[in-house]
């Protein structure tokens, strides 16, 4: 099946859009009376999987997500963990529900929502929504089969796969992005890896489930209720809480809304200042019952010290 999955992902959008209509009409019982002409398909691809939003104006559900899974991820993630976590988060309300899994396709609940824009991350209201939802995510308990910490996966496995894939198209990156890629290449060196792992906080909070990919495109605000929802949990696994927060702050530099390779632009001016880091941490830890204000402040100060360890 693996080869088939990868071949499907490499098909053109035109072919996959037709496939999305065909599979939706054959699979979603509420749409059995519809025709292909009743459906509209819009591509909304991530960096890994191909995603299509399929909608209609005649019956509920008004839309579904049709996701084509990519076998490149098989080299990076534990597929059973990814599948079971997706199901569990959907049942808990922390993620979209799974409507159906069929081979290398997945039908997911469609959120009628607006994607959070990078420039919105300076707004206190939006930061509070992110902080509140992330705190709930960190409280979620899930028993991963692969209990490897996220930071170890990044250094020992994912970095080499990602860098090798990017270097195949090195000439399509701008000068600043190439500098960033060259820096990432150093992370593959075993000596660098061993040194990096020794500086991690031994007393840092660890959550059984961290998102680990909280870029703006994975944060949605529902149009009807104004609630925030997270999506795309392929890289979720046990990790340092502050590491997950730091990753979110670093991702604020990137805008992934571009449709041409490499599908993002980087703006270092959006990197969180120390003041903005403190604001977010105060919003995050406001969800927790501390013994005293002093105890909460100590937690915030310790987190501020740890953030540079994960974004430097």
Query: What's the SSE pattern?
Result: HHEEEHEEEHHHHEEEEHEEHH
The percent range for helix content is 40-55%
**Tally of contiguous helical segments:** 10
> Which structural class best describes the helix and strand composition?
alpha+beta
**Percentage of residues in strands:** 15-25%
Largest sheet: 5 strands, antiparallel
Unreliable spans are: 1-7
Number of extended strands? 12
What is the typical, i.e. mean, pLDDT? 87
State the separation between the terminal residues, measured CA to CA.
40 Å
Radius of gyration, rounded? 20 Å
What is the general shape?
globular
Q: Which strand order spans the largest sheet, edge to edge or round the barrel? A: 1-2-3-5-4
Task: Provide tags for this entry.
single chain; alpha+beta; 43% helix; 312 residues; 10 helices
Q: Secondary-structure map with pairings?
A:
Blueprint: H1 2-10, H2 13-27, E1 40-43, E2 50-55, E3 63-68, H3 79-92, E4 98-102, E5 105-109, E6 113-115, H4 124-139, H5 150-167, H6 175-186, H7 190-198, E7 206-210, E8 219-222, E9 228-230, E10 237-240, H8 241-251, E11 254-255, E12 265-266, H9 274-285, H10 293-311
Antiparallel strand pairs: 1-2, 2-3, 3-5, 4-5, 6-8, 7-10, 8-9, 11-12
Helix pairs in contact: 4-9, 8-10, 9-10
Polypeptide structure, described:
- The chain has helices at residues 2-10, 13-27, 79-92, 124-139, 150-167, 175-186, 190-198, 241-251, 274-285, 293-311; strands at 40-43, 50-55, 63-68, 98-102, 105-109, 113-115, 206-210, 219-222, 228-230, 237-240, 254-255, 265-266.
- The chain is globular.
- Residues 1-7 have low confidence and may be disordered.
- The chain is an alpha+beta fold and 312 residues long.
- Helices cover 43% and strands 16% of the residues.
């Amino acid at each position: 099946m693996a080869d088939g999955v990868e071949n499907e992902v490499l098909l053109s959008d035109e072919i996959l859009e037709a496939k999305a209509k065909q599979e939706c009409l054959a699979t979603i019982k509420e749409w059995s009376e519809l025709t292909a002409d009743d459906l509209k398909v819009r591509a909304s691809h991530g960096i890994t999987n191909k995603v299509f939003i399929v909608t209609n104006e005649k019956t509920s559900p008004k839309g579904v997500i049709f996701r084509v899974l990519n076998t490149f991820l098989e080299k990076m993630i534990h597929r059973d963990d990814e599948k079971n976590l997706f199901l569990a988060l959907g049942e808990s309300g922390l993620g979209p529900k799974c409507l159906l899994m069929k081979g290398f396709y997945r039908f997911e609940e469609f959120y009628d929502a607006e994607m959070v824009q990078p420039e919105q991350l300076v707004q206190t209201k939006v930061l509070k929504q992110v902080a509140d939802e992330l705190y709930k995510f960190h409280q979620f308990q899930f028993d991963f089969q692969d209990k490897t910490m996220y930071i170890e996966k990044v250094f020992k496995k994912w970095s080499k796969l990602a860098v090798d894939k990017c270097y195949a198209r090195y000439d399509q990156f701008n000068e600043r992005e190439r500098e960033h890629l060259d820096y990432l290449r150093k992370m593959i060196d075993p000596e660098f890896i061993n040194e990096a792992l020794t500086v991690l906080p031994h007393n840092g909070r660890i959550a059984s489930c961290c998102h680990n990919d909280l870029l703006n495109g994975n944060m949605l605000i529902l149009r009807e209720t104004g609630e925030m929802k997270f999506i795309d949990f392929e890289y979720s696994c046990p990790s340092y809480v502050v590491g997950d927060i730091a990753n979110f702050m670093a991702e604020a530099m990137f805008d992934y809304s571009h449709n041409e390779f490499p599908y993002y632009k980087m703006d270092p001016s959006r990197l969180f200042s120390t003041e903005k880091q403190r604001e977010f941490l105060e919003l995050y830890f406001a969800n927790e019952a501390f013994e005293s204000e002093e105890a909460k402040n100590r937690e915030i100060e310790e987190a501020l010290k740890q953030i540079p360890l994960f974004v430097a």
